[in-house]
Write a structure and sequence with these properties.
single chain; alpha/beta; Rossmann fold; 6-stranded mixed β-sheet; 4-stranded antiparallel β-sheet; 30% strand
């Protein structure tokens, strides 16, 4: 990788206490993701994929090790700094879409901008522009229940981009979609990666999509990296 890393983890570990038993979800994970790359994280259920993504997204804190994103030491941030990082530094999308049912597609995309105190006219402009980018301008006034699964995930992608992050984290974004729609969503992520030089880290079980779109693949087993692959 020629570009400097936008993500760098060193000896990252996460341990959970379940009753009296300590369970190691991640152990000694050291990796680097160069800016503008599309990295896939794969592995069996329970291998630590989602834990890693939650740590990178600032949704959880490590038990040991460090996380550096775009020059900032995320693993040392306080609550206020983490909230700001989640708002502006890393956009996240999830398997379950997490849209607000009572709000339209446009209003869902606007939400991060509301919390960022962007004025009404500007946030509507930005939200409409992002919906057009993901191919949903014509569905802006529809609520989630009126959208297909693929459309809902496109809204979630647009929402994740609302505050202009340089990093997009996707946790099993195709888990609730059929194979054709899955390809469309991962293709959209790849297009954003190319067109906006957006760094993408995606957790996925979809081996064929990983091989087709990802520049780098990290394989986890029992919380440890057991293999990596890269292509130009």
């Amino acid at each position: 990788m020629n570009a400097p890393p936008i993500i760098q983890t060193r000896s990252l570990a996460k341990t959970y206490l379940i009753g009296d038993v300590r369970v190691a979800a991640l152990e000694d994970v050291t990796l680097a993701v160069a800016e503008g790359r599309f990295m896939a994280v794969t592995g069996a259920s329970g291998s630590g994929k989602s834990t890693l993504l939650n740590l990178l997204g600032g949704l959880d804190t490590p038990s040991a090790g460090t996380i550096e994103v775009d020059g900032a030491l995320v693993s040392a941030m306080n609550r206020e700094a983490l909230a700001r990082y989640r708002r502006f530094g890393a956009g996240m999308i999830f398997q379950s879409f997490n849209l607000v049912p009572a709000r339209t597609a446009l209003e869902n995309v606007e939400l991060p901008l509301v919390f960022s105190n962007v004025d009404k006219k500007e946030r509507k402009r930005r939200a409409a522009e992002l919906l057009e980018k993901v191919g949903l301008a014509h569905r802006a006034n529809h609520r989630p229940s009126q959208l297909s699964g693929g459309e809902q995930q496109r809204v979630a992608v647009a929402r994740a981009l609302a505050n202009g992050p340089r990093l997009l984290l996707a946790d099993e974004p195709t888990g609730n979609l059929d194979s054709r729609t899955s390809r469309e969503i991962v293709g959209l992520l790849a297009e954003l990666n190319r067109g906006r030089r957006l760094t993408v880290v995606m957790v996925s079980h979809e081996e064929s999509l990983v091989r087709e779109y990802a520049h780098d693949v990290v394989r986890l087993r029992d919380g440890r990296i057991v293999g990596t692959e890269s292509r130009a």
